[in-house]
Design a protein that fits this description.
single chain; alpha/beta; Jelly Rolls; Immunoglobulin-like; TIM Barrel; 9 helices; about 20% helix; binds (2S,3S,4S,5R)-3,4,5-trihydroxy-6-oxo-oxane-2-carboxylic acid
């Protein structure tokens, strides 16, 4: 079990939350001298950097942008005297990819994994009614024993460099918010919810974990603020008559209030917005509240100008507006769990989310998107270090599920993206992660992984574990692009016919398909990279999607252009966006809008 609570920090009668976002002192440590020189007590120099943000795109020199290694952050925090007797935490929503936290010169905790929160319990070291110094050492090196996978090399000039086995820039640093939190000593630690719908009524099965033994009281309020159910006990059932269900683009959110009581005194109070809904796979259908849904949407990234992968509340708002405009109803959090605020917004806006753990790059290649289509195979899960990787992967799944399980928007877990799954050795590894996700999720949401191009009906050794099959396919781009597109279509249909012949009786969705397109490039007749070709490519793939009844979703790659490592395969980033990186539509956005607005939610039933 995790030794810190994954609950989102919220103020209530018993809890206090102070944002530590803003300018932090910052120092790169290429020589690894920080500890020796006493940086845990305070950083040298005067440079400051915003949090949350990736550090890379602020600076004008390339050594800084490409920096690989340790970087240090520092900020003072004032701890009010009236908090004495409480549990005091510094909560990092993420530190990419690993971090060690020091407060007042004392090492408090370390955390590995760059896309989930952790807390430093500083109760024993803080000074009350005084300023306290928080110092964080963050490291952004890539390895094959943690996720996302890659390696770190040393250049002839002595500088380290990241070599990701994945196709997005290795943005890093304190990319999400930091909060100072005060909790009562006995507090709500965790919450699990599961739903049953019976006609117009619903049951909410809840289970609360606290850090003590005092009794728990739970109340449920509707959107108008009326109490609709209550219960006593750490586990129980809330019966809701005439329940408003959480639906696609018609989200209804109830407010669950949990209180730890001492007689009639509130010891702790926590609130959670919840949506009553069920998710289930039946035959080739994905059912939400028992009704079939067809997924339309995107593989996304957290990526924007200047702040990189840093959480950007304005970009989040714009992205949701664009997704609504184009008629999308879903997205996959490719290739890592996103900022918590994005799930909160998806809950509110009624979007369906496939939540993906950062298990990307499990195919040893710097151009896996290319090489997989040539049939390349790498023995990724047969290494001496595979058990260490598996342990890190399982921990990341545990943290993702603990963090995101109560969001109604999360309808499925994606446990790997484009792994090497054509080797026998992959199967036991996959079995472990699939079993683990199932154990952890009370709602038993469907699990999947995104299949890379070399993972075909006759080569993939792991697809049987997926509750629905997710395909990443680039027929007409990496395979037979341009004037050969008719050959691409033939190969595409051949593969789909082979899947059909297997009669798996499971839904298939496309978690990736797309074509790089330069935002300003027009050419008549089309050439690859032109806006005209992106449309041609989409018309071909859409026809294939419409030809198979078991295809139950299409999530195009990508929502927007995004930054990658430089190289001959990318023109200053991946340009498969339907929108530019500045969130303006390419031509194809209008084609997709027309298509998606015309497809019913229960398309293909
Ligand atoms: C993929 C990867 C994604 C890449 C994409 C591409 O299959 O999952 O991370 O960005 O292909 O554009 O090649």
């Amino acid at each position: 079990m995790l030794d810190y609570s994954m609950l989102y920090p919220k103020e209530t009668v018993s809890r206090r939350v102070v944002s530590m976002d803003g300018m932090w002192k910052f120092h790169l440590d290429g020589q690894e001298i920080g500890e020796k020189e006493g940086w845990i007590h305070g950083l040298p120099g005067t440079d400051m950097i915003p949090v949350p943000a990736s550090f890379q795109d602020f600076y004008t020199d390339k050594d800084t942008r490409e920096f690989t290694g340790d970087m240090w952050y520092e900020k003072d925090m004032f701890v009010p005297g009236e908090w004495e007797g409480k549990q005091i935490l510094v909560r990092f929503a993420a530190a990419t990819h690993r971090a060690t936290v020091y407060v007042n010169g004392v090492e408090i905790t370390s955390h590995e994994g760059g896309f989930t929160p952790f807390c430093a319990d500083v109760t024993e070291v803080v000074r009350y009614n005084a300023h306290n110094k928080v110092v964080v050492k963050v490291n952004n090196e890539l390895t094959e024993t943690n996720i996302p996978c890659g390696k770190t090399i040393t250049l002839p000039n002595g500088k380290k460099m990241n070599k990701p086995y994945f196709d997005f820039f290795n943005y890093s640093g304190l990319q999400r918010s930091v909060h100072l939190v005060a909790l009562p000593k006995e507090s709500v630690f965790d919450l699990d919810l599961d739903y049953e719908i019976n006609g117009s009524d619903a049951k909410v099965n809840y289970s609360v974990k606290t850090t003590g033994d005092k009794p728990v009281k739970v109340e449920l309020f509707d959107e108008a603020g009326n109490k609709v159910a209550e219960s006593v006990g750490k586990t129980g059932i809330l019966s809701v008559a005439d329940a408003h269900l959480w639906r696609v683009h018609n989200a209804y959110l109830y407010r669950l209030v949990i209180r730890i009581m001492d007689e009639d005194k509130i010891v702790d109070e926590y609130e959670q917005e919840i949506g009553i809904r069920t998710v289930e796979i039946k035959g080739t259908s994905i059912l939400l509240n028992g009704e079939p849904v067809y997924l339309k949407g995107f593989g996304k990234h957290e990526d924007s100008d200047i702040v990189g992968r840093g959480f950007n509340i304005g970009v989040m708002k714009r992205d949701f507006e664009l997704m609504k405009w184009i008629g999308a109803n879903s997205f996959r959090t490719a290739h890592y769990p996103y900022s918590e605020e994005i799930y909160q917004m998806a809950d509110r806006e009624g979007f369906l989310v496939i939540d993906e753990v950062a298990a990307v790059g499990m195919f040893e290649s710097l151009m896996n998107f290319m090489e997989a289509s040539t049939g390349k195979v790498t023995a990724f899960f047969e290494k001496e270090t595979t058990p260490i990787l598996l342990k890190a992967h399982k921990k990341a799944i545990e943290e993702m599920i603990a963090r995101d399980k109560n969001h109604p928007c999360v309808i499925a877990w994606s446990l790997l993206n484009e792994p090497e799954s054509t080797n026998e050795a992959a199967t036991p590894y996959f079995e472990e992660v699939f079993k683990y996700a199932h154990e952890l999720d009370v709602q038993k949401r469907p699990r999947t992984f995104a299949l890379i191009m070399n993972s075909l009906p006759n080569t993939c050794k792991c697809y049987h574990l997926s509750d629905f099959i997710s395909l990443n396919r680039y027929y007409g781009w990496y395979v037979k692009g341009g004037y050969e597109i008719c050959a691409a279509e033939e190969l595409f249909r051949k593969e789909m016919d082979e899947w059909k012949a297997l009669n798996l009786n499971k839904p298939f969705i496309f978690t990736e398909y797309g074509a790089d397109t330069l935002g300003l490039e027009h050419k008549l007749p089309s050439v690859m990279w032109s806006q005209e070709y992106q449309d041609e490519y989409l018309n071909m793939t859409n026809e294939v999607f419409d030809s198979y009844d078991f295809i139950k979703g299409e999530q195009i790659w990508n929502f927007a252009d995004f930054q990658t490592t430089e190289g001959i395969m990318r023109v200053n980033g991946n340009k498969k966006g339907v929108f530019t990186r500045q969130r303006q539509p390419k031509d194809t956005a209008y084609l997709l809008k027309k298509r998606w607005e015309g497809l019913d939610l229960n398309y293909k039933g």
